[in-house]
Amino acid sequence: MFVPRQYRPPDVSWMLRLMRGNPLALMATNGDPGRAPLATHLPVILDPESPLPDSDSLAGLGLLAHLNRANPQWIQVRPGMEVLFSFTGPHSYVSPVVYGLPTAAPTWDFTAVQVRGEIVERFESPEDTLRVVTATVRAYERDFGAGWDMTGSIPYFRQILPGVGAFRVRALSVEGMFKLSQEQPEDVREKVRDHFAHRGQGRDLELAGLMANPRAASACPCAGQFEELKHGV
């Protein structure tokens, strides 16, 4: 992913929080020779059994994912194969009206993380697949749910497991782009930030919060929570 210097996140916790808060990723893989690449939207979580790397590059980060075994892309899932996960965070259109300038061009502010990874394990046994599914449920109930207890539904999970393909990925590289109008003068950036804040929509409010001070880790909603992410809190 091409990331101009001014759009790089100030630290890796920004990227981890975006991935955790926007876990429906797009997985892209190479197609057959002469054919288009394959792409699937699928749930991806941080592997709770894999410690977060200490490196700022996040190389070695462990991820778990699953998709429908009827999906043609599942055939490609095998150890050693490279995949690309694309996570999209808050984003919104910026009209030139917001700038209050005689001449300007519109743009789209956005946040995204791309993970280039290698498949290290394709789970074939029902028990291994079930562990991925239950780990995904726990992660999503923690971050988005209402504390649902899955215990009574495990027998149902076992019934649908034959159609689930689960696998583990190790990140080779992780790149984030947080385009928050950093190319604009500070007074114009303030106008854009206020515009997002006053619109009152969820993704716009998130952008406004990130724009409060994009060059400082304290501006990120995930600031101070990197250790929590390490422990899966």
Automatic annotation (TrEMBL):
<dbReference type="InterPro" id="IPR007396">
    <property type="entry name" value="TR_PAI2-type"/>
</dbReference>
<dbReference type="InterPro" id="IPR012349">
    <property type="entry name" value="Split_barrel_FMN-bd"/>
</dbReference>
<dbReference type="Pfam" id="PF04299">
    <property type="entry name" value="FMN_bind_2"/>
</dbReference>
<protein>
    <submittedName>
        <fullName>FMN-binding negative transcriptional regulator</fullName>
    </submittedName>
</protein>
